[in-house]
């Protein structure tokens, strides 16, 4: 507060100024952080997650399901191409990511899970795996995780939707939270 109880003036930065401060040029693939909602249920969540990927400098890996391209197109409010990796077979893709040296982090309620606040920023190529909205990450994919992360909740629900959970984890992995 300033003298007389008035708040200091807040200067809002304009979109052009923000763009100049961020990336000097568009990317073809961030390739350091990848959000992987490999078992999606709702297309709206994919569009929201795509926007978050752009915000944190991540790519999105999605399964080749007939409805996914339309969901991404509807959800891409940025109106420009985004970095999307198409996955034909999720388990095989995850295995190849691990073999290539990526760290695979799953967002899942598990006994061994670390709390979101304790999740360190990604220092190596990291894949953030997000499960099905109702069933979570399939059992056979859990064996491919290097780490599970849990988002603590105090309310009555047991989980957040994929877009919200993925956004929280991506911001943390990107070192922005």
From TrEMBL:
Keywords from the named record: Methyltransferase, Transferase
GO MF annotation: an example: RNA methyltransferase activity
Pfam families the record matches: SpoU_methylase
GO process terms (BP): methylation; RNA processing
InterPro entries tied to this protein: Alpha/beta_knot_MTases (IPR029028), rRNA_Methyltransferase (IPR051259), SpoU_MeTrfase (IPR001537), tRNA_m1G_MTases_N (IPR029026)
All copies of domain tRNA/rRNA methyltransferase SpoU type, residue ranges: 44-171
PANTHER family reported in the protein's UniProt record: RRNA METHYLTRANSFERASE 3 (PTHR43191), RRNA METHYLTRANSFERASE 3, MITOCHONDRIAL (PTHR43191:SF2)
Protein name stated in the entry: TrmH family RNA methyltransferase
UniProt source species: Actinomadura litoris
Lineage: Bacteria, Bacillati, Actinomycetota, Actinomycetes, Streptosporangiales
């Amino acid at each position: 507060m300033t003298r007389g109880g008035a708040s200091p003036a807040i200067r809002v930065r304009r979109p052009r100024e923000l763009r100049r401060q961020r990336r000097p040029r568009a990317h073809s693939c961030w390739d350091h952080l990848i959000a992987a909602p490999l078992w999606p249920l709702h297309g709206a969540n994919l569009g929201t997650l795509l926007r978050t990927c752009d915000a944190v400098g991540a790519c999105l890996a999605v399964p080749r399901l007939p409805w996914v391209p339309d969901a991404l197109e509807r959800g891409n409010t940025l109106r420009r191409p985004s970095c999307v990796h198409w996955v034909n077979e999720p388990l095989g893709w995850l295995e190849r990511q691990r073999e290539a040296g990526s760290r695979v982090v799953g967002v899942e309620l598990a006994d061994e899970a670390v709390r979101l606040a304790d999740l360190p920023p990604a220092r190596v190529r990291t894949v953030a795996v997000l499960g099905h909205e109702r069933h979570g990450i399939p059992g056979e994919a859990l064996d491919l995780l290097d780490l599970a992360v849990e988002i603590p909740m105090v309310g009555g629900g047991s989980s957040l939707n994929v877009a919200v959970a993925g956004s929280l984890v991506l911001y943390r992995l990107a070192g922005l939270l």
